[in-house]
Amino acid sequence: MALSATEIILGSAAIALIWALIQFSIIKKIPVADGSNTESSALSGASGEGSDETTARLNEIYTAIYEGADSFLKAEYAVCNIFVACFSIIVFLLVTWGTDYNVARGGFTAISFLLGAGTSMASGYLGMKVAVFSNVRTTVSAQKAGFTPCFNTAFRAGAVMGFALCGLGMLMLYVTMLVFKGYYPEPEDWRLLTESITGYGLGGSCIAMFGRVGGGIYTKAADVGADLVGKVVHGIPEDDPRNPATIADNVGDNVGDVAGMGSDLFGSFAEATCAALVIGSSIGVSGGWDAMLFPVAVSAVGVIVCLVCSFLATDIAPVRSEDGIEKALKIQLISTTILMVPAIYFAAEYLLPESFDLATAVGEGTVSLEPWMAWICVSAGVVGGLIIGLVTEYYTSHSYAPVREVANSCKTGAATNMIYGISLGYQSAVIPVLVLSIVIYKSFALCDLYGVALAAIGMLSNLSTGLTIDVYGPVCDNAGGIAEMAELHPSVREKTDALDAAGNTTAAIGKGFAIGSAALVSLALFGAFITRIRASSDDALFKDGVNMLEPLTFAFLLIGGMIPFWFAAMTMKSVGLAAMQMVMEVQRQFDEKPHLLDANPTERPDYDACIAISTQASLREMIAPGAMVIFTPLLTGLFFGVHAVSGLLVGALIASVQLAISMSNSGGAWDNAKKYIEKADANSELKGKGSDIHKAAVVGDTVGDPFKDTSGPALNIVMKLMAVLSLVFADTFYAINEGKGIFNLS
User: Where is 366: in which H helix or E strand?
Assistant: First the structure.
């Protein structure tokens, strides 16, 4: 029986949500109780009294982390709700006015914006809840013999987030399209349908911006404060319960690395799909509804492939030793990439007609495409993403020479460590940029700008697996912190550290995927913007492409290139300001309660004071960077016109890619150089933990924290958000003096 695109997409979304629920139900069966005295434990037996005390402590820590994360996200989303309500009115009014008072288009765009924002917030909140729920259960599982129970718990926690987000994102997007199709039933009108759905990507990206920046400031303020005062000044271990900032640090992992990252990647999925649908809307006329929906179907196929491959990690070849952890995670990425290539081929042959026409982005007429061309473009994105990820691993894992060079540079102090780390970040951008260039050229040559959009979809096709691995890392990190704070047997922390170390490496691979896909998504959105301006102007503008030698375009090209640096400066400074407050608060508590530093302290630190500092600072500091990114393209288009916006978007894209890669990889390298030194013996050249070499590495890691977890990842959203916002308001920009803006400059 032949399946339609509707059945494939809705069926895949349902399977994803059911699978996420199954994984959650397995995790839920693990009780939050000390397992150190069970027969299956690898640890020494414990008395019943000690077990009860440890169980109470585990629940106390779990509750503190949950309440901290929950209160922050509710406060953050309260701010976001106000923004979404106000900005949806702006979307409705400007789009309605720009489309010659077409209330339907303005209303549909505003509705899709609200749905995208709501889905993004739901994804972030769900991710936080699942991560916090699973952190303590990973700690409990680490008390059992072997690595299989704790690895599977953390992996399944990631799978809940990965499959739930992809399923929910596809379901909301496609149901919205079906509703809009009731108003636009004719293929000739599907261009208007796809343009209305762009609000979905804008809503997701706006929330991702606030989530990434707010969550990033929260987690790194706590992390930097805890490290500087705790490890560098007083020499106490990471996550030591005597450190007042340790609960805030663990809360930050959930609101930044999980909730913020989830919203970010949801935005990438929504924007890539919207761009492909807008550029390929003309396919619906010649190929029908199923052919036009091919980009969404690719994501649907990706969910099934990721689900099948997940059995490799948990059942077929489960993790039995420390050496198998990183191997299992990398096999997930490689196996999904290998399986996606033939799966996409069959999807293209099944859904696309033997030949279909696409309106060209430059010039008149159409280009005739065949299914194998679309397959090549998507496959180029899939394989290109894996290459970028593996290159990222090479530059950020201490298994390879670059990070070991950074570690050795710590022998002469923090300054040389900083020099080596920054140099590594710059160098690490070379190969990914070359790979992206090849993917863009080949995709564009085969299928015009639609090919670039398909490549972006391809790079995100195994998003379920990517999210699984991304969430796995913070879950293991938190599990180690809980083990330390609950004062469990040292071997539990050793086990969670082994899980976390592999997670750090694969998380770096995931960031490579995210940056690469963001670049392709941004270019695709730029192409969709040009396509929409051409349609609005009846080919009066951009018929022959964008002329970068136009004075206004070239001027804003430079301004666009400046935006990522301005944004990075604002977010880095925000982390610095919040971290200074955190350092002073932690030191104040140590000064006022000197017995906190005793081996067995009789006093308890005030964790809530540090949580309050991170919460207030992140909510305050996330407004300015977010507003700058959102209103820069909007005001540019309104006052200077579409030529200025074109230059702005290209400049921001080019600069953001290089800066995001270099910042993320520098931060990752500093982090793993520190871990490499910590693994060294005290009699070795690197001297190990507590040495001056280690302190120099901690300084580098501290500087690298906002590089890799605040500014670097948020730059993905900078280039995407500016592009999708310009796409949504394209008709409005053209309506003002035929695209010349209020100032009417030429």
Answer: strand 366-369
Q: Which helix (H) or strand (E) holds 517?
A: helix 490-536
Alpha carbons 235 and 692: distance in angstroms, whole number = 11
List of long-range contacts for 540-549, beta carbons under 8 Å, 24+ apart: 540/738, 541/642, 541/734, 541/738, 541/739, 542/642, 542/646, 543/362, 543/363, 543/364, 544/362, 544/363, 545/361, 545/362, 546/643, 546/646, 546/650, 548/647, 548/650
Phi–psi pair at 367, nearest 5 degrees: -115, 135
What is the domain count for the chain? 1
- Whether residue 473 lies inside any domain: the answer is yes
Instruction: Decide if 482 contacts 246 (C-beta within 8 A).
Output: no
Domain that holds residue 676: 5-30+54-353+362-597+604-739
100-129 pLDDT, tens digit per residue, is 999 999 999 999 999 999 999 998 898 889
Q: What region does 231 belong to: left with phi over 0, alpha with psi -120 to 50, or beta?
A: alpha
For the entire predicted model, the pTM comes to: 0.92
Dihedral angle sign, alpha carbons of residues 263, 268, 273, 279: positive
Residues 243, 223 contacting (CB under 8 angstroms) = no
What kind and span of H or E run contains 358?
A: strand 356-359
Instruction: Report helix, strand or coil for 229.
Output: helix
Q: Is 83 helix (H, G, I), strand (E, B) or coil?
A: helix
Structure confidence by residue, pLDDT tens digits, 659-699: 999 999 999 899 889 989 988 988 899 998 889 999 899 89
Does residue 471 belong to any structural domain of this protein?
yes
* Calpha distance 523→534 (Å, rounded): 17
Average pLDDT for runs of 10 along the chain of length 746:
85 96 94 61 38 84 89 91 96 95 96 96 89 92 91 94 94 95 93 94 93 88 78 71 85 83 86 90 88 94 96 90 88 93 94 87 85 96 92 90 95 95 96 96 93 94 91 89 87 87 75 87 92 88 88 96 96 91 88 82 85 90 93 96 96 95 93 89 89 91 90 91 95 94 89
Q: What is the 3-state secondary structure (H, E, C) of 316-338?
A: HCCCCCCHHHHHHHHHHHHHHHH
Joined together, the tokens standing for residue 217 give: 């400031």
What is the percentage of the chain residues whose pLDDT exceeds 90? 57
Instruction: Specify burial of residue 148 (Cβ count, 10 A radius: 0-12, 13-18, 19+).
Output: middle
Distance between CA atoms of 15 and 364, rounded to whole angstroms? Answer: 42
Identify which of 393, 395, 385 has the alpha carbon closest to the alpha carbon of residue 466: 385
Q: Is residue 93 in some structural domain? A: yes
* Cα gap 369→290, rounded to integer Å: 15
Classify 144 as helix, strand or coil.
strand
Q: Which residue type is seen at 54?
A: T
Calpha distance 514→301 (Å, rounded): 19
Are 69 and 126 spatial neighbours (Cβ–Cβ below 8 Å)? no
Q: How far apart are CA 173 and CA 181, in angstroms?
A: 12
Distance separating alpha carbons of residues 575 and 711, to the nearest angstrom: 9
Which helix or strand (DSSP H or E) is residue 210 part of? helix 190-226
Cα 719 from Cα 391, distance rounded (Å) = 22
Of 380, 428, 434, 432, whose CA–CA distance to 401 is shortest?
428
Tokens of 218: 């929260």
Q: First vs last Cα of the chain: how many Å apart?
A: 58
744 assigned to some structural domain: no
HSE of 33 in the Cβ direction (CA atoms, 13 Å)? 13
